[in-house]
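subagent[fold] <- orchestrator: predict structure for attached chain, return tokens only, no commentary.
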Amino acid sequence: TLVLQVEAGKMESFWLDPSEYGFQGEEEPALGRSAQDHAGRILRLLAGELGPGRESVLWNAGVKLFWMKKVENLKQGFTRAREIIDSGKALHRLEALRNASQEKSGTEKV
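subagent[fold] -> orchestrator:
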């Protein structure tokens, strides 16, 4: 994965190899599905479902936790991302955001 990092007006680029962090690689889910299919897949992944897409979710979440300085290193970021997803906290947070958004807009929960 090519990383471009901008900090204090300076850009740095470097490569990260997911296999160095225990990621095995996976086939991406097929493109061309509907938005509803993708939303359902995301909900299942956040509910802890194993399978295609999980490594991508864990990788992206772990990197973001590191960049946001929520963890000290990438390995901790990936561990923490796995804990958050597997505990159900990620799904719970998404549902809370969705409910708050629907309450504000006056729409019903679907």
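orchestrator: received. Logging for downstream: The beta strands are 2-7, 10-15. The longest strand covers residues 2-7.
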